[in-house]
């Protein structure tokens, strides 16, 4: 009888620990989302350096505008071939793509979100401003390291390209240090590393370096001339204004 009672108590304890761990992991992921979207708005110039397996580089330039958690606009400014291409993220998991050649904006469906963003190693989903806690279920893998947490992120959508993302999170500030992406065969195929910097009281990713291990291909994103709380107008994030 005592054995049964002990077994029940151990089961309850195990379930309770799992619930607490899930809540703690969710809290940390929420903190990360809050850091990413902390400014009222953010504006920056973007440099993209795309490197293929031979070491050949292509350089692109873009502008970035972000307001709150749910509004984010990337627009290529160079070279001429890419200039004008824009991606707009909006509330309710909406992502719009504008291609000057077609002259209109198209809403990206769930399957297309996993596709590469204009030849880079980022997907449209990676480039969106949608909070991670809305897209993933987090759980701890390792919380005992003195400098970082390791958290597993499982996509809530079965249509995601990823089976999971292993997130390494700074333990003091709670910004991402690294994300390891796993494909449908549960193989690690892509890694993003982040270099964060503090400016005007806000932490932001000054550099993001994404490597595709299968293709031996990489994309580095560098933010320059970063400005916060400029009072960006909501009209900047209207679908009908993507065409310039």
Rounded mean pLDDT is 87
* Gross geometry: globular
N- to C-terminal distance = 76 Å
CATH class reads Mainly Beta
Helical content (DSSP H or I, runs of 4+): 10-25%
Instruction: Label the structural class.
Output: alpha+beta
Integer-rounded radius of gyration: 20 Å
List the helices and strands and how they pair.
Blueprint: H1 2-36, E1 41-51, E2 57-67, E3 71-78, E4 86-90, E5 94-99, E6 104-107, H2 124-127, H3 132-135, E7 136-142, E8 148-155, E9 164-170, E10 176-182, E11 188-199, E12 202-212, E13 217-228
Antiparallel strand pairs: 1-2, 1-13, 2-3, 3-4, 4-5, 5-6, 7-8, 8-9, 9-10, 10-11, 11-12, 12-13
Structure notes:
The protein has 244 residues and is of the alpha+beta class. It has a single domain, classed as Clam (outer membrane lipoprotein receptor (LolB), chain A), CATH 2.50.20. It has three helices and 13 strands. The protein has helices at 2-36, 124-127, 132-135; strands at residues 41-51, 57-67, 71-78, 86-90, 94-99, 104-107, 136-142, 148-155, 164-170, 176-182, 188-199, 202-212, 217-228. A 13-stranded antiparallel sheet has the order 6-5-4-3-2-1-13-12-11-10-9-8-7. A hairpin with a 2-residue loop joins strand 11 and strand 12 (202-212). It is globular and about 50 Å long. The chain starts with a helix and ends in a 16-residue tail after the last strand.
